[in-house]
Amino acid sequence: xxxxxxxxxxxxxxxxxxxxxxxxxxxxxxxxxxxxxxxxxxxxxxxxxxxxxxxxxxxxxxxxxxxxxxxxxxxxxxxxxxxxxxxxxxxxxxxxxxxxxxxxxxxxxxxxxxxxxxxxxxxxxxxxxxxxxxxxxxxxxxxxxxxxxxxxxxxxxxxxxxxxxxxxxxxxxxxxxxxxxxxxxxxxxxxxxxxxxxxxxxxxxxxxxxxxxxxxxxxxxxxxxxxxxxxxxxxxxxxxxxxxxxxxxxxxxxxxxxxxxxxxxxxxxxxxxxxxxxxxxxxxxxxxxxxxxxxxxxxxxxxxxxxxxxxxxxxxxxxxxxxxxxxxxxxxxxxxxxxxxxxxxxxxxxxxxxxxxxxxx
Length: 361
Description:
By secondary structure, this protein is α/β, with parallel strands linked by helices. It is 51% helix and 11% strand. The protein folds into 2 domains: 2-117, Rhodanese-like domain (Oxidized Rhodanese, domain 1, 3-Layer(aba) Sandwich), CATH 3.40.250; 137-348, Rossmann fold (3-Layer(aba) Sandwich). It has helices at residues 23-28, 42-54, 56-76, 97-109, 119-133, 151-160, 168-172, 190-203, 226-233, 244-254, 256-259, 262-270, 273-276, 278-289, 293-316, 335-348; strands at residues 5-6, 16-19, 35-36, 88-91, 114-116, 140-144, 164-165, 210-213, 218-219, 222-223, 236-241, 324-327. The chain has a 5-stranded parallel sheet with strand order 1-5-4-2-3. A 5-stranded parallel sheet has the order 7-8-6-11-12, sandwiched between helices.
């Protein structure tokens, strides 16, 4: 029944998008804005899948009975108030039985339901294709600088000052370093990150520059698309310079959740042993145990973060030494005022015009 199918290009033509996959599948990633109305629960899908190995017919019979009951429940609850002219788009993993059964039932009722051709798999392929092409359409200005230089605060302030930004660390729910995991917030799945990133990329104006932080290929467990990494590594850079005392104070503030859980902080520090040796890491742990937090922040700046920054920039940004410098005061200044000052400086250098190409340095 091809007349009941729709393509990925027609996503915006429907009143609502319904994901009928399991809650686990939906949680990993889904079409933006889709609601979850599972035809099979997590457990029911396992049951049907196990039956299928021995008897496809029996699995189909049992699956159909379960699906019918679940669709009936959704009709009595989730979709009870939908109007007669409602037009939903329905999808499952590959556009098969799960979405087909709900689409057929909805059309029998009188709703103009359509089934997404190829299901979520087709949507995922479209996301991956976009990640390969969209980043190359944009011009980037990269905020570089060692950990504690307030790059994230400056990036957010640039956004409030009217500039285009992508906060990759916010999307990845991670600050990028070994100690960068955010309190009480797990990182998204890779697929969910990709979906959110594509949404942001599509919302940007290619005629205007996009400010980003300097990143390597990975942010915690998240991998950035090659096209975006290449764009960042080949872009003009602004080196954010901050007084050491402010860097130490900023790190102390950002470590607040870690300082509240010394055993976890110690566990994270011990992961640096292969890089720094047991003796040095144990000295850091003693500072933590003795509550000498400012001193710990200072030695981490000197002994860990700055050498790591030097290694990374040598590898990814070989011309950084020739880049523009910007003195920032993340703890004592007004970030938005300073962001406006940076924008004015970049305008004066003709960095932000449409003719500015992407060239390093």
